[in-house]
Structures are given as structure tokens and as C-alpha cells.
Amino acid sequence: MLSELKPCGCAKEEDQGGIERRMQYIKDTRSHNPHLILVDTGDHFNEPTRQGKLKAETLLIATEKMQYDAVALGDRDMVYGPQFLKERNQIPWIAGNLLIDQFEPIRSKVKVFSNGLKVGIIAIADPDLFYDHVGLKITDPKQTARKLITHMRETENPNLIVLLSHAEKQAALEYLDLDGVDVVINGHIVTETDVIDLKPVRKNGKLFVQSSSRGQKMGELRAQFDPQGNKSLSHQLVKLDSSVKFDPEMVKLYEQYNEKVEAMFFETLTGKRNGRNKSVYAGDIRCKTCHPAEHTVWSGSRHARAYDTLRKINKAFDPECLGCHVVGFNLTGGFISELDTPALKNVQCEVCHGPGRSHASAPQTGFGGQAKEACKQCHVKNHSPRFNFADYWPKIKH
Ligand code: HEC
Ligand code: HEC
Ligand code: HEC
Ligand code: HEC
Hints:
This protein is α/β, with parallel strands linked by helices and 398 residues long. It has two domains: 12-239, Metallo-dependent phosphatases (Purple Acid Phosphatase, chain A, domain 2); 275-396, Flavocytochrome C3, Chain A (Flavocytochrome C3, Chain A, domain 2), CATH 1.10.1130. The chain contains 14 helices and 13 strands. The strands form four sheets. A six-stranded mixed beta sheet has the order 5-6-8-9-11-10. Strands 1-2-3 form a three-stranded parallel beta sheet, with no helix packed on it. A two-stranded antiparallel ribbon has the order 4-7.
């Protein structure tokens, strides 16, 4: 759900996930476990911007290459329309109760292993999560699931049935009571910062688990069958952290994405340059003339190197990074590019004290008093999980 192509690297503890590690993990797991099923519960796409779409495309190409057995559809997956999904025709989209114009995902699937074991997969989504989409009809999830299960049992009669659900946890827990279902894997996310309770729930020998957000972890579920056909299920979450290597093919795919983002960045510069002369910002060198002591402290802080941090990892053109690593990105008169606005690189005085051009020409007391409030614009959970003002302020106090 909302998985990242690559973690931003802002904070070590959030440095998990990414397609490069996920692919490597999948390959390793496949090579040790021939009887493997790989599933995904949906909600792939973030906000529908131009860059968002580029990201979505890259993510789906990666998903295609990872050779999932079933990929369920969530409410967020509709944002670019069915054609967008259809184009990735190697992805085994699955949706039991979503009736989509001009797009026919599979309704159910049974995977038969070389040892004769059969695992059935179905997917249902909670209609309440979907806005009215033209060309989308949603049938009752439980009724649909019952029909699909009955049909499966009458035909292939799988040893295990896995239901992929796209719903709020409470609603999804009810699907565990459906006759025939052994495992419910639920996924649904509203924003990236949502905290998801990942604790599995057991009930009458059945198991309910949730997918983690931002592709940071992989859920591993083991099913064992004794000769009498009794099943036992176990589950664990695996962090995709720095102990997992990068898959070279995905590294390449990510580089291609980066190149496209860079091209897009330079394309949008022309439009932004028109507003350059109106800048409300003065730049740190102006502030230095009258506040040399503050400037010295600031120069020694990491804020003064925030742009270099991006440049070192070839990310100084990515709008998704610049916003917190320079002054006023995407704001009138703010940072455009290193070439256009060299004086507005890094996290400068005016990021916290506010635009200061008029203060610099006619100084007054009382300027920039809201600086304390600025921290939380950038020191958010996903990028700075340990932030609290009392610990951080002393490190940059001036
Ligand atoms: C919402 C604001 C925000 C965004 C967006 C953001 N960063 Fe950061 N970044 C931060 C903050 C805050 C820190 C400092 C974290 C800390 O130490 O608590 C940081 C730190 C870093 C560091 C660590 C520097 C070091 O020397 O340890 C790297 C690398 C980094 N960011 C890269 C990126 C990249 C790449 C992107 C885009 C994919 C990005 N950032 C997007 C806020 C952001
Ligand atoms: C990361 C945010 C941040 C940056 C960057 C920053 N400041 Fe500050 N600054 C603050 C905060 C917070 C305070 C304390 C305000 C308070 O005590 O209410 C402060 C205090 C000050 C004060 C003293 C105000 C007073 O009431 O005594 C001055 C002057 C000042 N900063 C100037 C600068 C200059 C010049 C720069 C750049 C060279 C700069 N600051 C960079 C956040 C920042
Ligand atoms: C031409 C000199 C000059 C420049 C340039 C200048 N300041 Fe000031 N700044 C002052 C004076 C004078 C004061 C009032 C200090 C006082 O009376 O205590 C002040 C006060 C401040 C205060 C504290 C306000 C308060 O009430 O204590 C902050 C914060 C501040 N400046 C930030 C900046 C920033 C950021 C820049 C650059 C954008 C900047 N200044 C540029 C002269 C300047
Ligand atoms: C515009 C975004 C932004 C704002 C606003 C901001 N920061 Fe930061 N901060 C960053 C980034 C980005 C980094 C990492 C820079 C790097 O290392 O490349 C950082 C790093 C830091 C660090 C260094 C962390 C460490 O472990 O050494 C401290 C301390 C810090 N910020 C404190 C603050 C405080 C306090 C405020 C508010 C007064 C604040 N920041 C406001 C973006 C911001």
C-alpha cells in the first residue's frame, strides 16, 4: 500500500522498503521455497500528479517483473482509470466484486503446486471506500465471496482459501467468519502517515493479517498440512531494511524513473522563471550582514548542507525532496533550481523566520517570531521520527 520506489533516507529507522530490496527479497524467498504464492492487497497510487503518475507507472512495471500471483485492487487504484491498469497486462489483477467497464480482472484463482496442494485466492473490496466512479459497479462483498467460494469448492476444491480484502480493519475481520475462508489478508490506507495495527488476529484456526504501509515490510505466512489435512498457519513480518541487497534490474528501473523526474524538473523551469524577479526572499548572505553570529551558528548546522545532501545522492532535481531541503520550493519567489536561485539552496533562515526581503531593507524588531512553529513542516514522522523541539532546538540554537 502506497509503497515507495525507494525510501528517502531522511532517517535511518524509516530506511525500509523500496522496489530494489523487495525484488531481491522475493527472488531469495522464491529460490528457497518452491511452493510460494505472492499476493498484493492494492492501494498502489498516491496523489494523481504528473510525478505521481510516473511513479505509479514505475511501480507497476516493478510489480509486473516481480511476478505476483494475484494483485487486488483498492480504491486508490482507480485514479488513473482502468486503461492504465489494463496496460500492465502481465499483472494478475484480481477483484471479486468490482465490475469495471472495459476491464476484466480475474475473479478468483486456484494455484496448484507440484506436490498437488491447491490454494484458492479471492479478492473483495468494501464499497464504502469507493467514491462514485463512472463505469464502476460494486456488488455486495460477502455475497460475492460466498458465491466464489462455493464455485471454487465445487470445481477445484482447494486445500486452503486466501481472501484478499480491501476494507477498514473492523469490516475486514468479519470476512474471517465466511465459511471456507482460512486466511484474510487485508489492506487499505488513506494517507502515507497512517499507523496500521499489524498484529495478526487468530480465530477458530483461521488467521487475519494486515499489509504494512509504504512497502516497508513483507508479510510471510506459512501454511503446513499434516497427513490428515489439518492446517497450521504461522505469520511473520520481515523488515526490508539495509540487510536486504538491491536487485540490479530494479536499480536500473529506479534510475530510469529518476531520469524522467529530472527531465520533468527542467521542463517546468521555464514557467517558474517568469516569476523570479518578484522574490520575497533575501537569502542567507543578506541576513549575515546584520546577524553574523546567528549566521555562523547556522553555517555549522546540517540545515546549511541540506541541498548538498540531495546532490550527493543525485536527487537535487526531485520535487518530492526539494520541498524540505531548500527555501520556498514551489512558492512564489522561492527556489527554482541551483542555477536560477543559487542563494536559496539549503534550509535557510527564511524557511523558519519567513520571507525577509522587506525586513532586510527596513529592519524592525518583532520579525520572524513564529520560527518555532516552522519545524513541524519538515520534521514530520516519516522523515524525522525522533523529532521533538526540546531535543532538536539546542543543536541549532542561535
Ligand atoms: C517532509 C520533509 C522532507 C522531505 C519531503 C524530504 N526530506 Fe530528507 N530530511 C528531512 C528532515 C527533517 C531530515 C533530518 C531528519 C533528522 O535528522 O531528524 C532529512 C534528512 C535527510 C537525509 C539524511 C542526511 C544525513 O546526513 O543524515 C537524506 C539523505 C535525505 N533527507 C534525503 C531526502 C530525499 C532523497 C528526499 C526525497 C525522496 C527527501 N529527503 C525528502 C525532511 C524531508
Ligand atoms: C530551523 C529554523 C531556523 C533557522 C534555519 C534559523 N532560525 Fe533563527 N531562530 C529560530 C528559532 C526557533 C529561534 C528562537 C525563537 C524564539 O526563541 O522564540 C530563532 C532565533 C533567532 C534570532 C533571535 C531572535 C530573538 O528573539 O532573540 C535571530 C536574530 C535569528 N534567529 C536569526 C536567524 C538568521 C539570521 C538565520 C540564518 C542565518 C536563522 N535565524 C536561521 C529558527 C531558525
Ligand atoms: C540591515 C540589517 C539587517 C538585515 C539585512 C537583516 N536584519 Fe534582522 N534584524 C535587524 C535589526 C536591526 C533587528 C532588530 C534587533 C533589535 O532591535 O533587537 C533585527 C531583528 C531580527 C530578528 C529578531 C526579531 C526580534 O524582534 O528580536 C530576526 C529573527 C531577524 N532579524 C532575522 C533576520 C533574517 C532571517 C534576515 C535575512 C532575511 C535578517 N534578519 C536580515 C537587522 C537586519
Ligand atoms: C524546510 C524544512 C525544515 C524546517 C522548517 C526545519 N528543518 Fe530541521 N532539518 C531539515 C532537513 C532537510 C534536515 C537534514 C539536513 C541534512 O542533513 O541534509 C534537518 C536537520 C535538522 C537537525 C539536525 C539533526 C541531527 O540529528 O543533527 C536539527 C537539530 C534540526 N533540523 C532542527 C530543526 C528545528 C528545531 C526546526 C524548527 C525550529 C527545524 N529543524 C526546522 C529540514 C527542516
